[in-house]
Amino acid sequence: MKNTTVLVSGAGVAGITLAHWLRRHGCTPTVVERAAGPRDGGYKIDIRGAALRVVERMGLLDQIRAHATGVRSGTVVDGRGRRVASMDGDTFGGRDSGGDGGGGDGGGDAEILRGDLHRLLLEATEGVEFLWGEEIAGLNQAGDHVDVTFAGGATRAFDLVVGADGIHSTTRTMAFGPGDHVRDLGYRVSIFSVPNHLGLDREEITYVSPDHTVLVYSTAREAGAKAMFLFADDTPLPADGRRHLVEHYRDQGWEVPALLSEIGEDFYLDSLSQVHLDHWSTGRIALVGDAAHCASVASGQGTSLALVGAYVLAGELAAAADHTEGFANYQAALREFVATNQKLGPANVRRMVLGSRGQVRVSMALLSLLSRLPGRERLLAKAVAPIHRAANAIDLKDYPVGEVAQ
């Protein structure tokens, strides 16, 4: 694979990480991204288990910990704003806060803003060519290479192409066709910035009612706050997402009306969905991250899957005799890990978005009781143990790397 040219579509976590490892293995990656430049901000994300070992091998773990969100506590409230339960931030977020944590440094899981992680990954990928404000318009596999036509009109040939362009991957559609690869879980998620009118100081508050959940939090890294809305809905995504969200939450209590009156410019609305494919490659084109196997936001493992998948794909390509063997070994090494983590999504979202008043009452009563019991952290840790087992459900190979030419 020495000097193999690889076009990576998408400058998200999977794409940038893949470019980093491809370069360290002697390939020549180019990353194409439709956005005009690197994205700042974004929601907070977790790095767990095997993914911690990936960023440690990239030399980024200490910097990631230095950019931690610093969220100290989590609280659940009812429709009147009455506190039902409170706990520390790691317990509330289902994070392993100590021991090995799967990372090998004894620091446990890491929580960081997506924009901060993107910046750190980009800094670790110095020397890679990025085509900002551009995207793939056409792919043609031609024997020993792939002819790529860009939206701007330019054409180039690459030895390999990898789609790292997310759940709605255009690379996947071009290479695999418009098949039924995306499975809607029957829920929607919306995220946006809001003024911190609640005066949160590295805190997270969750409001729960039947079929509706709202989270608001502040971090040590931002002056304002973020709001996240999760709700049951299987209707097609509308053109006017803001109006759709407001309509769904118009009868809700607590601070919901105020939050909906302060929707930020970074408004985001999408379905909670997963991607399922029998194969993650066809010829000289492969997929990685959400484009290949999105587990959904509800899994809590999207970022970790992206980091691990990119590391494994680059390593298996470097270790193989050719790309066909490399792609096959990548899927064989990752398939069970992906399947284990995808199972988390449907189960988690049913606990996050409760379907009836009875479920809400029972859940609130149990949380209230648990928050007052001695040893509650240990009891709650058992509830999130499946996440940590899934996060560590792979034995990462240590792929040898050479010196990178400057």
Automatic annotation (TrEMBL):
It comes from Actinophytocola xinjiangensis. This is FAD-dependent oxidoreductase. Residues 83-108 are annotated as: Disordered. The lineage of its organism: Bacteria, Bacillati, Actinomycetota, Actinomycetes, Pseudonocardiales. One of its GO terms (molecular function) is FAD binding. Transmembrane segments: none annotated. Pfam families: FAD_binding_3 (PF01494). Residues 4-322 form the FAD-binding domain. Residues 91-108 have a biased composition (Gly residues).
